[in-house]
Design brief:
four-stranded mixed sheet; alpha/beta; 9 helices; 404 residues
């Protein structure tokens, strides 16, 4: 059974599209950074209680100042499982002239054009990142005074009730008992993050020429950072079939490159480097009390150093088209199996492809993987996913599939 990629109608995408905030990579280094529409300040909140929603573009006093004023302590990996929801908003508020205007409902908190769940197993033997398409039509629960909807786009949940509403919606969809952390980040934060780690090497199998994000990359390897990295993560018209689903595939390819870069530069095992990265982007974030201490973020990130690359998976939530919702998607046949993975927090084995936004790296573009020697671990519980669930592991070399 195959699953169909559907394209959404073109939007005014000079600042549109998709904002993915990966605080995991930033301070949580969880390699998931992606941005696509216009993310605002980031808020990390505990549980599904409302995370502090700072006015977009505003800065808050932060652990960066604390980190600068005190010596970097010795920090070990955080114990137990991690469920962290990363949310990117398409807001234009406070994002500067380059992102002014253009999109409907793009002021204030905006819509969650990017929704990613980062999950680390309790025994730290595996991790996975699940991307939920913005155009997924599902029930939305009542949030912050907004009534429940029997069916609506996932990307309306942020506008309805902030990051707490997005977390509640994902919990309802998957049956997960708890999502303890949520995060939002801004365009500036994304640019600074990619720059702070010295750029991310990405490969392009077919040239990318996207006038909407002003991204033009030839076939081959490119080390990107700042505005170019942001455009790479936001591009939709430049990769695959031009759909949001293809963009997710491309973003996951970037994230694996980002994770491997952090391994190769020994970032994940060096608390001082992690503090430096966190400090670079903290001014563009607002954090809740449970993560205001930079040490907590570094502690979560440290977990990743002991996870083998082939057990760090990136997958797109299974969807399919529906005649009832043209140019939108609904949960696919394998959604229940992915929900089981998330509820049990276990490793997955991918048997499908990467999706049309990314392709396996041609032999001429392959590079050796960084040395990753995780600690010895016991047998890992694994669920095999069917071939129509697309994604990749951090050990898979893939390239952006441009449109030529």
């Amino acid at each position: 059974m195959s699953e169909k990629n559907t394209s959404t109608p073109p939007t005014h995408e000079k600042g549109a599209g998709w904002s993915f905030a990966t605080k995991l990579v930033v301070a949580i280094a969880a390699v998931v950074l992606v941005s696509a529409g216009a993310i605002t300040a980031i808020a990390l909140g505990h549980g599904t209680s409302a995370a502090p929603q700072t006015a977009p573009g505003a800065s808050t006093s932060t652990p960066a100042a604390l980190a600068a004023a005190t010596p970097t302590p010795t920090i070990g990996p955080k114990a137990g499982p991690i469920n962290l929801l990363l949310v990117g908003t398409d807001t234009r508020t406070g994002q500067g002239a380059a992102f002014a205007g253009g999109l409907k409902d793009s002021s204030g908190v905006g819509n969650n054009d990017v929704t990613m769940l980062i999950q680390i197993a309790a025994d730290h033997t595996s991790a996975r990142v699940v991307s939920f398409p913005r155009d997924l039509m599902i029930p939305i629960p009542a949030c912050s005074g907004a009534g429940a909807s029997s069916v609506a786009q996932l990307n309306s949940s942020l506008y309805r009730g902030g990051t707490a509403c997005v977390a509640t919606t994902i919990k309802q969809l998957t049956g997960m008992a708890s999502i303890p952390y949520t995060a939002l980040i801004s365009f500036d934060g994304v640019e600074k993050l990619s720059t702070a780690i010295g750029g991310v090497p990405v490969c392009v199998a077919r040239a990318i020429n996207d006038p909407y994000t002003d991204l033009h990359l030839s076939v081959g390897w490119h080390t990107i950072s700042g505005a170019t990295a942001l455009s790479f993560l936001r591009t939709r018209h430049g990769v695959g079939d031009g759909s949001d689903l293809g963009r997710i595939n491309n973003q996951q390819s970037f994230l694996t490159d980002l994770l491997r870069t952090m391994f190769s530069k020994n970032v994940l095992t060096n608390p001082t480097k992690l503090y430096d990265i966190a400090s670079a982007v903290y001014q563009d974030m607002a954090v809740s009390d449970n993560l205001k201490n930079a040490a907590d973020l570094v502690s979560i990130t440290r977990i990743l150093a002991d996870i083998p690359l082939n057990r760090f998976s990136f997958l797109r939530y299974p969807t399919t088209s529906s005649p009832a919702y043209p140019n939108r998607v609904v949960p696919g046949a394998a959604a229940s199996l992915v929900n089981q993975v998330l509820r049990q927090n276990v490793n997955v084995k991918l048997t499908g492809g990467t999706g049309n936004g990314a392709v396996p790296a041609p032999s001429t573009l392959k590079k050796p993987l960084p040395t990753n020697t995780p600690k010895a671990k016991r047998t890992v519980t694994t669920i095999t996913l069917p071939s129509y669930v697309v994604g990749q592991t951090a050990a898979d070399r893939t390239c952006a599939n441009g449109q030529g």
